[in-house]
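ARCHIVE RECORD
Type: protein–small molecule complex
Small molecule: PRP
Source of inputs: curated submission
Record status: active
Notes field left blank by submitter.
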Amino acid sequence: MLNIALPKGRLGERVYAMFEKAGFACPSIRENNRKLIFENEECGVRYFWVKPSDVAIYVERGAADIGVAGKDILLEYQPDVYELLDLHTGVCRMAVAAMAGFRDDVRRRLRVATKFAGIAEQHYASLGREIDIIHLNGSIEIAPILGLSDVIVDIVETGTTLRENNLEVVETIVDISARLIANKANFKFKNEPIERLVASLSAQIEENR
Ligand code: PRP
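STRUCTURE (tokenized, with ligand):
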């Protein structure tokens, strides 16, 4: 049985459709209920819906053999897993943003509001810029508006949230997309189905490019 952790939400549903096409169908997953675990013995597959930021934990600890996680989560938490494939979906970028017209005063420490403290710290360390991290859990865009921070480090997808809050991108830190990840030990034990899945997903990605 191949155990697969999927990120709950739109990205997970899109990715499941790719897995289904690869021969790992589990029709019960499309039933409209609040179940979180779905199994199809015929295809030898079991899916779990988990919070997107938790997928890497399930995979790292072997509760799931493989899973789909955003590159943002992999960079932030650096789980000890194999990154097998860029799925070229869930595409967005990690960026620094600020109120329109913002000027950095280098004499002062920069106050950075973010959910991604690790990525922000690494980015500013590489620039030699001293910062104070203000760790928030969501609605990060509010911080500079209320004067809680000078800038934010956050995910930008369409840019709508920034625009509608009078913020703009200062710089892009890194491009993000969804990645197929595998538990290191289970990758060896369950190599055949995992390689079969990777081959089909790669072909699907090529087709869609
Ligand atoms: C993410 C991110 C931005 C928004 C960017 O928030 O934190 O707020 O999406 O998308 P856009 O560029 O298309 O507007 P999410 O919906 O994950 O909620 P959050 O406030 O909990 O971060």
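CURATOR ANNOTATION: Residues 56 and 74 are 7 Å apart (CA to CA).
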